[in-house]
Each structure stands twice: as C-alpha cells, then as structure tokens.
Write a structure and sequence with these properties.
With about 290 residues, the chain is of the alpha+beta class. The strands form two sheets. A five-stranded antiparallel β-sheet has the order 3-4-5-6-7. Helix 2 runs antiparallel to helix 3 and helix 3 packs antiparallel against helix 4. The protein is globular, with a radius of gyration of 21 Å.
Length: about 290
C-alpha cells in the first residue's frame, strides 16, 4: 500500500467523495487489503449509508481492531444505524474505555441510552389520541413576505397531492405537519430559532418546506428534500423539512427509530462538522411548539 494511495483516500474523505474511496479499494484484491485499507473501506461505506456492507468489512478485521478505539467506534456506527442498539452500546462503551471522553463517542452513547430507555418504557397497549402541544395561530405564526410567497408558500395540498408526495419521498409525513400545511402550505415563521437541548445555543431556520412541487422550496420542488439530500450528501434518514441560512446545515425528520410510516424525530445535520446529527425534538409537533424569536 503506497503513501500516495493513503493520501488520496484522505483527500477523498475530506471532499466527501466516498464512492471514489470504495471504487479505489475494491479494485484491490481482497487478500491484498490490509487493516488500514479495510478500515478506510468500512468508513466510506458507513458514510454512504451502506451499513451492512461496512459491518462485514469491520468484522473481517475484528481481531486486529480489538485494541483500536476507532475500530470500535466505526463498527458502533454501523450497528447504530442498523438499529442493533445493544451491540452498538457495547462497541461505543469499549471505544470510550480505550479513548475516554471523545465527544462523538459520548454523543452516540447518549443517543443509544435514550433509545434503549424508550424501548424499555414502551407498553403493548393502545395510546390515547395525542393532543397538540401548541395551537398554531396561522395569523401570527407566519411571516408572509413577498419572498415567502415566491419561494415557499403553495395552495393547500389536496389528499391526492399529499399521497403523491409521500410516495415520492417514501416516507409518511407527520399528521400534525400535514394538518398545519392544509392551513398554510409552507413559509417563513416569525419564530425561527430552536434551542439546542442542553447547550444554551440555538439553531436558526430559514423556512418550512410545504407539501408540493410547484415552489422551489417545497418538499418535492427544485430545492426540495431529495435534491438537498443528494447534492449535500446528507444521511438518508428521512425528509428535509426546514432549510437554514447556511447551505451546510438542514433540519430533517428522522425516521430511523420507528420506520418510514412511524412518527419521526426532528434532527439538525451539520455538514461542516462531519455531518454531525443533533437531536432537537421527539416529533415535529414539539419542534414547532419550541420555536422562539
């Protein structure tokens, strides 16, 4: 393995050219790949969302990775996104023991413990209908500027359009969001900041994408969810629901916990910080209720 190849792999990683890494390494015969190359391959596959394939690569070098905190961290990422939380917890715990207080490791450990606690608390009984966290006053909630009408606001969606958009996105939209869009389909809220839990800091949003295709900033518009995810190489975890002042961050509905038809969490994804995911709210309803000026 040449230093030139390693330098190129690092360069591709910095430029988010993960498929280039996969293509280059898989051209090398499997029996000729060492621990370092296989680790690079697994990391690239994780970044492409191919977690099963990444896991296979990491398990092939398990013996060599036993004392490497990065190996435990990266296989933990694979387990986490495959929803194998018990195995992910074990991997990140070992990573933390080998390299204490790593910020990313501690963040994953926090997420896993919350998810395992949620599962433990779930009971096999029907839940009563949930009441809205906040009643949306469409008169005072939205800042209906000329720009908002130009870029975001569409006519209220029909049931046929909602079904069509959900089919295209492959995700069922939250009921509260759908009802909200029937009253005012997309736009810029007056309250456009959301507190980042436990930090005292805030995320700022530019607007909320509506249901449709006609406006640039609607879910299936020219700058809609799929376009933003593909162009920005954001993780394939759900739907971009809000854009932000910076093109390198988005607010997404995250369906990993309960599936494509379940109730998604709301997360912030920061592309400038290695696509760091920050959980903001349990659901869209809570997110809307927590927006402040």
């Amino acid at each position: 393995m040449s230093d030139e190849l390693l330098a190129k792999l690092d360069e591709w990683h910095e430029e988010d050219e993960f498929q280039e890494i996969v293509d280059a390494i898989t051209e090398i015969a499997e029996e000729e790949r060492d621990y370092v190359l296989t680790s690079h391959l697994g990391r690239a596959l994780n970044n492409l969302g191919q977690y099963e394939e990444a896991l296979e690569q990491y398990l092939s070098i398990e013996e060599e990775g036993e004392g490497d905190p990065l190996w435990h961290y990266r296989i933990g990422v694979s387990y986490y996104y495959l929803k194998r939380y018990d195995e992910a917890l074990k991997a990140f715990t070992i990573a933390d023991e080998l390299e204490p207080d790593d910020e990313d490791t501690l963040e994953f450990l926090g997420w896993i413990k919350r998810k395992l606690a949620k599962k433990a608390a779930k009971k096999p009984v029907s839940k009563p209908a949930k009441k809205p966290v906040v009643a949306i006053d469409t008169t005072n909630f939205w800042d209906d500027s000329e720009y908002a009408f130009s870029e975001y606001i569409s006519e209220p969606p029909t049931d046929a359009l909602i079904a069509s958009v959900e089919e295209e996105l492959v995700f069922k939209l939250p009921k509260y969001y759908v009802e909200m869009m029937k009253l005012h389909n997309g736009g810029i809220p007056h309250n456009n900041r959301y507190p980042i839990p436990g930090t005292g800091e805030f995320i700022t949003i530019s607007g909320i994408l509506g249901i449709g295709r006609d406006k640039n900033k609607s879910l299936c518009g020219a700058s809609g969810s799929r376009t933003v995810i593909e162009n920005g190489r954001y993780p394939e975890v759900g739907v971009v629901i809000c854009d932000c002042p910076s093109e390198n961050e988005v607010i997404m509905l995250d369906y990993r916990e309960f599936g494509n038809d379940g109730e998604p969490e709301v997360i912030h994804v920061d592309r400038d910080n290695k696509y760091k995911i920050t959980r903001l709210a349990d659901n869209y309803e809570t997110f809307i209720g927590g927006l402040v000026k």
